[in-house]
Write a structure and sequence with these properties.
Layout lengths: L2 H17 L8 H9 L4 E4 L8 H9 L3 E5 L3 H13 L4 E4 L5 H12 L5 E4 L1 H4 L2 H7 L4 E6 L14 H4 L3 H5 L5 E5 L4 H10 L6 E4 L7 E7 L4 H12 L5 E4 L3 H13 L4 E4 L5 H13 L4 E4 L14 E4 L6 H8 L9 E7 L1 H13 L4 H19 L4 H8 L12 H4 L4 E3 L1 H13 L6 H8 L5 H5 L16 H13 L3 E4 L5 E4 L4 H4 L5 E3 L22 H21 L3 H4 L2 H10 L4 H4 L7 H17 L2
Parallel strand pairs: 1-6, 1-7, 2-4, 2-5, 3-4, 5-6, 8-13, 9-11, 9-12, 10-11, 12-13
Antiparallel strand pairs: 14-17, 15-16
Length: 607
């Protein structure tokens, strides 16, 4: 048996015995073998695609300890808990540990007792850490969330730029960099900054076909729209709701609780203890809704998040993809649901203008926001557009986004747009959208009379549309670059050069206002498929209840014991003994030894 055959055999054996899987997912096998042979790799794989196995298996196959660099403290703990359940000797080093705990981990390292060590980049870059690593046998370096190296990305971490030191100090140890979110420019930056010019690129694509994308305009009652969505589509299911401000997070979480839902706030203004408590509850309890700023979610390994909702516009498609990717990591149906409005655009552009970043960086941010707005306003398949942004392609419309399921209606907006643009010109390009709409609709307010705008030619020429429809029109004109918002001029709307052809009569088709991001009857529910019989549903609940008891006893999230998909397979297959149980996906040797008898007993008694 040659070396490559031995590596392949040992990797497959580890996959089955330790992790309980019969076969690798696409590209996992090639990536694992690449690292096991001592070669470098850059891995682009969607969230839930099995990135962690790509470095965990080589860490077990190769001699020495696998060093995994991650910026995500919560994820470190979850992964270490999961590995320990599998019988793997794993630990982490980060700021949550006290000095005696750190010393214990270091002693285990020197004694060769650890198979994997998760470490924060800040600690890795300490001189004493680098000296310590030079004294031990290292299997590999895994750089998780590698997009954090990009200064133009949505989640830049300055410590990541220094990680080229790994190539300089440890040139013969293989490195694997992994990310779920990287456009073409970010990929090139990862390669350059981490000195991965000779690494093999593995691109598994960016598609998450189980996620349904739905985007609607905020019609002024966002809370009610959100509540209807949760109650109709995801009652008693886990989800994340993202808001732009801490104040709105607190208010919305309180309001959802008042409406009978189990909601918790999460943002940087809360104490560390309260944030940790809320995060632990979200991971360990069923049906929790986390209402959060974007400070929450990185490193959340919870597989059964059934929806991610945005009540404000993300600042880029990278951020949107990263945040929505926290839904449906288990591969079951999930929702990415969003409301957005003109005020979001104004606030985000104001934040960009007031930033202390360079003009070059501001231009990049403006470009990313424009791409995000364009994505919201498109009338074609959203998934195709999202994948295209990341350099990935889908041959046909997906059939699982709002524009595929309910194709948006368009209308000839040429005349209305000319009125809207003319009103900006006639009032001197000094006023915001609300004032412009009042002029178009002929409102004889004191302010309009004071400025003499009841005398301009555009006064009262727009009564064919209502206030909401005019607001929607102005937002589309801004998103298309025909108008711009003067942040320093208190939100005044100004004409751009691109408006000239429309004013001269060039036709303009725009998207009709969609009333709400609800569901139509033809689509039906997007919930995880129920079981066929009451007996199966009863067994499912018994297995989940026992899993919860075990998790509570050990102080770990339930999915660390077994994923929902593993329990579902138990319900369908009904293993009658340990031999049968060992064939269930996700039941490795250690878990079979620990939990097999209990779960077989529950299944047998329910026959």
């Amino acid at each position: 048996m040659n070396d490559e055959t031995q590596i392949s055999s040992k990797a497959a054996q580890t996959l089955k015995q330790v992790f309980g899987y019969d076969s690798f997912r696409p590209q996992q096998k090639q990536i694992v073998e690449q690292i096991c042979k001592g070669e470098d790799a850059l891995v682009l794989m969607p969230t839930g695609g099995g990135k962690s196995l790509c470095y965990q298996i080589p860490s077990l196959v190769r001699e020495g300890v696998g060093i995994i660099i991650s910026p995500l403290i919560a994820l470190m703990q979850d992964q270490v808990d999961t590995l320990q359940q599998l019988g793997v000797s794993a630990a982490y080093l980060n700021s949550t540990l006290r000095a005696p705990q750190v010393q214990q981990v270091i002693q285990q390292l020197h004694a060769g007792e650890l198979q994997m060590l998760y470490i924060a980049p800040e600690r890795l870059m300490m001189s004493q850490t680098l000296v310590m690593l030079s004294q031990i046998n290292i299997a590999l370096f895994a750089i998780d969330e590698a997009h954090c190296v990009s200064q133009w990305g949505h989640d830049f971490r300055p410590e990541y730029i220094q990680l080229s030191v790994l190539h300089e100090r440890f040139p013969h140890i293989p490195r694997i960099a992994l990310t779920a979110t990287a456009d073409k420019a970010t990929r090139q930056e990862i390669i350059e900054r981490l000195s991965l010019q000779h690494a093999t690129l593995f691109n598994s694509g960016f598609d998450r076909p189980n996620i349904r994308y739905s985007i609607s305009e905020n019609s002024g009652n966002a809370r009610d729209q959100l509540l209807r969505f949760i109650q109709s589509e995801h009652p008693a299911e886990a989800g994340i709701v993202y808001c732009l401000s801490r104040k709105r997070v607190d208010e919305l979480a309180s309001w959802l609780c008042h409406k009978g839902l189990n909601a918790l706030p999460y943002h940087a203004g809360l104490s560390t203890d309260r944030r940790r408590t809320h995060q632990q509850r979200f991971l360990r309890e069923d049906g929790i809704i986390m209402v959060a700023t974007i400070a929450f979610g990185m490193g959340i390994d919870k597989p059964d998040v059934r929806f991610v909702a945005h009540l404000n516009l993300p600042k880029s498609l990278e951020a949107y993809y990263q945040e929505t990717g926290r839904a449906g990591r288990d591969g079951q149906p999930a929702d990415a649901w969003m409301l957005y409005g003109l005020q979001d655009v104004i606030v985000l552009r104001q934040m960009q203008q007031q930033s202390e970043a360079s003009e070059h960086y501001k231009r990049i941010e403006q470009h990313k926001l424009s791409a995000m707005l364009g994505f919201c306003e498109i009338t074609s398949c959203r998934r195709q557009a999202l994948l295209h942004y990341f350099g990935d392609y889908l041959d046909a419309p997906c059939g699982n986004c709002d524009t595929c399921l309910e194709p948006p209606k368009t209308w000839d907006a040429t005349t209305a747009a000319q009125k809207a643009l003319s009103c900006v010109h006639r009032t001197g390009q000094r006023f915001g959208v609300n004032h412009l709409i009042d002029v178009l609709m002929g409102k004889e307010s004191e302010r309009i009379k004071r400025f003499g705008h009841d005398e301009v030619s555009t006064f009262a020429i727009g009564k064919e549309l209502n206030t909401q429809e005019w607001r929607h029109l102005y937002r589309q004109l801004i998103s298309r670059g025909l108008l711009s918002v003067d942040i320093e001029g208190y939100g005044a709307i100004k004409l751009n050069e691109a408006a000239r052809p429309i004013l001269k009569g060039e036709p303009l088709q725009l998207r009709k206002l969609k009333k709400a991001a609800g569901r139509s009857s033809k689509r039906g529910k997007n919930n995880v498929e129920a079981f066929a019989t009451p007996e199966e549903n009863s067994l499912w609940e018994k297995l989940r209840e026992h899993r919860k008891e075990l998790a509570d006893q050990q102080g770990v999230p339930p999915f660390v014991i077994f994923h929902d998909s593993t329990l579902r397979e138990m319900v369908i297959s009904r293993p009658a003994n340990l031999l049968d149980m060992g064939q269930i996906t996700g039941v490795g040797a250690k878990k079979l030894e620990r939990y097999g008898d209990d779960f077989v007993g529950i299944i047998t008694l329910s026959e």
